[in-house]
Amino acid sequence: MGLSRIAASVEDAINRRSVAYLKDKGWRPRIIGLTGYGSVQSLHVLGRVIMADPQIEAEDPEALERAAPVGPINVAAEAQRGWRSFFTAQVGFLPVTVHANGQSIRTLTDRGGYLDVMVRDHGLEPGWHEVTIEAAAAQPVTAKVLVVDPGVRSGIVSDIDDTIMVTMLPRALIAAWNTFVRHTSARKPVPGMADLYRTLLADHPTAPVFYLSTGAWNTVPTLRRFMDKNGYPEGPMLMTDWGPTPTGVFRSGIEHKRTQLRNLLITFPDINWVLVGDDGQHDPMIYDELAREHPRHIAAIAIRQLSPAEQVLAHGTPEAIEQPPALRNATAEHGVPTVQGRDGHALATMLPEVVAERSQTLVALED
Fold first, then answer.
1. Residue 210 shares a structural domain with residue 338
2. Among residues 108, 128, 147, which one ends one of the domains?
3. Do 125 and 193 fall within a single domain?
4. pLDDT tens-digit map of 316-351
């Protein structure tokens, strides 16, 4: 048996015992509705089922917005500490039903307690809607879903860590401090990024914004509060599960981003995307690769440049570790513009103009 299978087996065994222990303590399954998305033809409904203490939920109305940890806790004292989000007992293979505009889709959660239900021909109009998720022994919840208007031609895909929020996440010790110890309200937004997004959306108010990250799904409630507090536009979050897979002890963040980006191109074939990331890890290469493969679907690439100190915290050296080759990239080969800047204010001096020019070029190519 390979190491990844052993890790998965150990994780499953621990989780089964945790679920049984919590059930004996009176805990019950609880559904967390995540933000879904889709077109007028099909819709992704996302969520997760974990174990939760019904007494805590009754006493704390905000408990539904947080992942519940394994074991008894003092919610009032620890509600804002991000470490709690990672210690969950997920309920795998639980019967779940999704109700969307008269349709009912039955399925099971996966081994991690997650659900991603595809609802076809749902009949919902473009805009934000709510669907209902039911699960055995759990209270039904509503989950928000975004149906993108078929006439929309622009959209934004944004990384999270070190792009809109200063976290230095790839550095193990810093990640542990930010995630497990530090008060969530102390996390700092990257200056000017929220304003940049609002500027880009000013001429395209119905354009969707997707947040793509290698961070864990567990952090979504915390990230949602951070984005609301700092004025970032609402949008679905495309996260991942840090657990073992059939091919590795940890999931590949690079492959996660590649897969989700291609899924967006398939789901929304008429949208031209602005891809926003940072140069602390692999965003420049991932975005450039996609733009070279699908240049007519990419309006521009925007890369936040980390300072030398941030680079050291990110990967150990003071310079970016990965950049597209000077003569073999989407800009040189296909004219896809790439702009770089230290923060949102610097990017705002270049990005809106190049996006407008690129959009005119793409329209001309379609004609």
1. yes
2. 147
3. no
4. 677 777 789 888 899 999 999 999 999 999 999 999
What are the pLDDT digits (tens) for 223-247? 888 999 999 999 999 998 755 444 4
In this structure, are 101 and 68 located in the same domain? yes
- pTM for the full predicted model: 0.86
The reply to whether 267 and 304 lie within a common domain is yes
Tell me whether residue 183 is exposed, middle or buried, using C-beta atoms within 10 angstroms of its C-beta: 0 to 12, 13 to 18, 19 or more. exposed
Q: What are the residues whose beta carbons fall under 8 Å from the beta carbon of 184, sequence distance 6 or more?
A: 80, 81, 82, 222, 225, 226
Terminal CA-to-CA distance of the chain, rounded, Å? 56
